[in-house]
Amino acid sequence: MSKIEYSVQVRLVSDLAASKEFYEKVLGCEVNDFWAVRDEFALGFKLLQAVEPGDVQPNKKGKDQAAAWDTYAYVETHNDLDQLYEELKAKGAQFIQEPVLTEADWGAWKEFSITDPDNYSIGFGSGKKD
């Protein structure tokens, strides 16, 4: 079986220039003509200019979901998540969910979410205490 090296999400955006600026300046991605990637494709997007604004359609919330996600990324520890939160906050990210810690029988999950210029939600989480 062939190994897949990485994947990216394709995003139709209403303003390619504004999206490229967000993904570079706020999210910390390396950006070129339409690629936005961070941490060697651990987080990757292909940004495409939409034909019509109505073509941009972020996900809606699922049942029992606190926030809708279009992308969900994981970090190693809660400390790493806290550092990422502070990094994104300092860069002007718009948060749709502040960090929340949920305790369960299996452990503790911590997460937060931000939004991009087209209201695509990007969630970040960790299931490992430091």
Automatic annotation (TrEMBL):
**PROSITE patterns, per database record:** VOC (PS51819)
- On the tree of life, the source organism's domain of life is Bacteria
- A Pfam family cross-referenced in the UniProt record is Glyoxalase
Locate the VOC domain: which residues? 3-127
Would you tell me the protein name for this molecule? VOC family protein
